[in-house]
């Protein structure tokens, strides 16, 4: 990112606390891998830095390490913020983000007891650095299944170009828009019926008194009633 989100050391823990509390709903990557040489285009002007970092390969392990392994979130919350919440926001749930009959067979078999050390020497990103370099992360994807086909197993990637598929997305996902109607209803103006008929006051009819502003002498700096 340019400039960085925050250099203060407390920012990372604060963001994880917000994830745990539900103030943040999911974790994405916006994975975009520019090399060090490409990043140096903005050495003297940060606005020229090509934006993007690696994250796709390490995202789930980082969230497991910082969240579940450290006791801030439970495994169910981990699944929500790495999978089902995104599917709901993109309005493709339950086709995606759920294991069920009729849903796409996209499954990650997760080993919470295995750990790995992140390194640019062993990652699969087409860049010469890794922002998580040297971190020991607990939680590893042993097997990844995409639409019923094994694409990752035994630390080997098995994918073919051209096997992707366009998934049309409908607008107005319920998770984001369902509350709008209720909010509008709650905030709508409601008329109040009042009885304006003259009432008896000491045996006489009492007409409503209408107060109107009167311009004071010498100017309009105030309004007198």
TrEMBL record:
EC number(s) recorded for this UniProt protein: 3.5.2.2
Keyword hit for Phosphoprotein: yes
GO biological process, one term: pyrimidine nucleobase catabolic process
GO molecular function per UniProt: dihydropyrimidinase activity
Needed co-factor(s): Zn(2+)
Start and end residues of each Amidohydrolase-related domain: 13-151
PANTHER family: COLLAPSIN RESPONSE MEDIATOR PROTEIN, HYDRANTOINASE/DIHYDROPYRIMIDINASE FAMILY MEMBER
Similarity-based family: Belongs to the metallo-dependent hydrolases superfamily. Hydantoinase/dihydropyrimidinase family.
Entries under InterPro entries matching the protein: Amidohydro-rel, Metal-dep_hydrolase_composite, Metal_Hydrolase, Metallo-dep_Hydrolases_sf
Protein name as annotated: dihydropyrimidinase
Signal peptide feature range: none
Keywords, in A-Z order: Phosphoprotein
Reactions that this protein is recorded to catalyse: 5,6-dihydrouracil + H2O = 3-(carbamoylamino)propanoate + H(+)
One cellular-component annotation, GO: cytosol
Native source organism of the sequence: Ancylostoma ceylanicum
Residues spanning the membrane: none
SUPFAM superfamilies on file: Composite domain of metallo-dependent hydrolases, Metallo-dependent hydrolases
